[in-house]
Design brief:
Blueprint (H helix, E strand, L loop, with lengths): L1 H11 L1 H13 L5 H14 L4 H26 L1 H8 L9 H22 L5 H4 L1 H7 L3 H26 L4 H39 L1
Helix pairs in contact: 1-2, 1-3, 2-3, 2-4, 3-9, 3-10, 4-8, 4-9, 5-6, 6-8, 6-9
Length: 205
């Protein structure tokens, strides 16, 4: 993957970094934790300029997030509630969705801002933001701030580490897998809880 990232960055420059980060937001397995240190390393060698790479990466983050936000907005709270009433929809009940919407209404800004600095969650948090109807301007500003901090940190790490930039991947990779694992476990727990609730209602009926 590193060779592929280098090829795109070397051919397209800062625009290539922005494109890769946009794709990373829409397709989480593409790791910004590798893209950004690589770009930072290229900036240190003089191939790229940090003053153009950082805005490009942040713009890519925001555009990618807006795509998923749009998906959430299209789905919407009421449509999601209708899906939750169907037996095959096992991830959440109507009550769970309503509680989640209330929680996002109260703390959505903090959730979006902080989640932008957590692997995997930094992408998927855009969907509930769209579902909850968070104002698009507020979402865009919060996403730009959180993404800007994340991007600056990893560009700086790549600059500082130089040719040892791959050290980042070695220690951050396991952390990313742990976060993804916890998300998967959470989804499984929700599915089991939802199925048991459905079965209990059917039994009482």
């Amino acid at each position: 993957m590193a060779d592929w990232i280098f090829a795109i960055v070397d051919r397209l420059g800062a625009a290539g970094v922005g494109l890769l980060i946009l794709l990373e937001n829409v397709i989480p397995p593409i790791p910004s934790e590798v893209i950004l240190p690589l770009a930072g390393f290229r900036a240190r060698t003089g191939t790229l300029n940090l003053l153009t790479v950082w805005p490009a990466a942040t713009a890519g983050s925001v555009l990618g997030a807006l795509i998923l936000y749009g998906l959430g907005a299209w789905l919407g709270h009421e449509r999601l509630r209708r899906l939750a009433r169907r037996r095959w929809f096992v991830f959440a009940s109507v009550r769970d969705i309503d509680r989640g919407d209330e929680l996002f209404d109260r703390h959505g800004g903090k959730v979006v801002l902080l989640a932008r600095c957590v692997p995997f969650l930094r992408s998927v948090v855009s969907i509930p933001a769209g579902i909850s109807g968070m104002p698009v301007l507020r979402f865009t500003v919060l996403t730009a701030i959180g993404s800007g901090v994340w991007n600056a940190a990893f560009l700086a790490i790549g600059w500082a580490l130089g040719e040892n930039w791959d050290t980042v991947e070695q220690w951050l990779g396991p952390v990313s897998y742990v976060v993804i694992g916890l998300v998967v476990v959470g989804l499984v727990v929700l599915a089991v809880r939802r199925r048991r609730s459905t079965e209990a209602v059917a039994t009482r009926g």
